[in-house]
Amino acid sequence: MIANVKSSGMTVAEYLAWEAEQPIKHEYIDGEVYAMAGSTLPHNDIAVNLTSLLRPFLREKGCKVRMSDAKVKVSEQGPYFYPDVVVSCDERDRRAIEAIHYPRLIVEVLSPSTGAFDYGQKFQFYRQIPTLEEYVLIDATQIRIDRYTKNAAGKWELTAYPENEEDLAACQLELTSLDFRCALELIYEDVELKGDTNLGIE
């Protein structure tokens, strides 16, 4: 997101009504509205790749994957965010019109302008969602993925991919919240990265 475009004090109802008439997306935090920054083509390609991998896998599991046009609300009072990929397995979200409220998995593809916020304050907000089990951050400039999972004690644990660059081609991302695994090379397939675009992946 970028600088706020509306003065403070906007209610959730005012935000939802106002944003429905805007040509671009806006996120909402504590009465402030922030315009969404444009993404790069590698950013978009990564989100498309992961969504394409998840969609057929989830079809028989009662879960639904959505991309960046789907709002997620942390609570009835907000914040409201637009993650790059979100999966919900709750029937209430299948019937929802304005926003998803019961996500199981949220994925953010990192941009230079938003990466620090995605790791920091946004993750703090996302952790308030009781149904969220997994939060994944995917770098769009190099092959790097950080996966946070909530353990049985409610604590968040980090797994970084790849663990060893020598095993890059064989490295797989595991999404335990969905019982899903896929090779990192599929997530980064046809993605133009900065510098060396192959990084050991053929």
TrEMBL record:
GO terms for molecular function: endonuclease activity. Pfam families: Uma2 (PF05685). Residues 13-171 form the Putative restriction endonuclease domain. Keywords: Endonuclease, Hydrolase, Nuclease. Gene3D superfamilies: tt1808, chain A. The keyword Nuclease applies. This is Uma2 family endonuclease.
